[in-house]
Amino acid sequence: MEIRVFDTAEQVGQAAAVLLAAQLLRKPDSVLGLATGSSPIPTYTCLIDLNRRGVVDFSQVTTFNLDEYVGIPESHECSYHRFMNEQLFSHVNIRREAIHVPDGNAPNLEESAAAYDEAIRKAGGIDVQLLGIGRNGHIGFNEPSTQFIYGCHVVSLSDSTIDANKRFFASEADVPRQAVSLGIGSIMNARQVLLIATGSDKADAVRRAIREDVNPQIQASILRTHPDAVFLLDRAAAAQL
Ligand code: GLP
Q: Which of 51, 67, 127, 234 does the annotation list as catalytic?
């Protein structure tokens, strides 16, 4: 695992965007695993700019998002479908049919989650997986647990995650209690993983992920066993290392 520390969140975003741009130059039909949350926004802003300037081309790219809430419509202002459209997809030359986000409204959520893993496998696997990290060390919506869950699955959100994410909703009661998330196996199968953490809120989770034994109470700790995982941190997130 490699750790790179930058002064600001914008610099972290630029560094992640440069790594993704290099990946697309090497392999224009790359499969990208994408994340939501505030952490990757500077990366997406930078990628949109590189796309406008003709440096990055999304025309052959396929994407799979990490997770989605259960039970809110795709048009809901907090849905991850909508987030991705607003923060990236509607601004770049990606083919609509190449975009995949877990379906949080499928009639059979478990079947739909299994089909999502199968679609990733059929696409050739994820080349680069972008990740944020929760304050409790979660990646995707893989919450602290006694185990690492392998495949895409339905998750009950922890109180800590509901508390962290309520800022996006009208009230805490409106935060969905469940989500669909790629599993740890799906994430670890990516050829490269880029984890972005910025701000002092993430310093404790980053320290635990890097310094504690690999254990499912801090799900991001598993990334230390990945052959090509890069932690991109700003000074505030790296403060406890
Ligand atoms: C959510 C998402 C995660 C994300 C985390 C951190 O819970 N499911 O994928 O990494 O929030 O979000 P933020 O970057 O806004 O702190």
A: 67
Distance CA 212, CA 96 (A): 41
pTM above 0.90, yes or no: yes
Q: Where are the alpha helices (DSSP H) in 27-156?
A: 41-52, 80-87, 109-122
**Residue showing tokens 């009208």:** 170
67 in active site: yes
Amino acid at 9: A
143 a catalytic residue: yes
pLDDT tens per residue across span 56-68:
999 999 999 999 9
The answer to whether 221 and 138 are in contact (CB under 8 A) is: no
Give the residue among 64, 50, 52, 61 at the shortest CA–CA distance from 21.
50
Q: What domains lie within the chain, and their CATH numbers?
A: 2-223 (3.40.50.1360)
186's CB contacts (< 8 A; 6+ apart) are: 117, 120, 126, 150, 151, 152
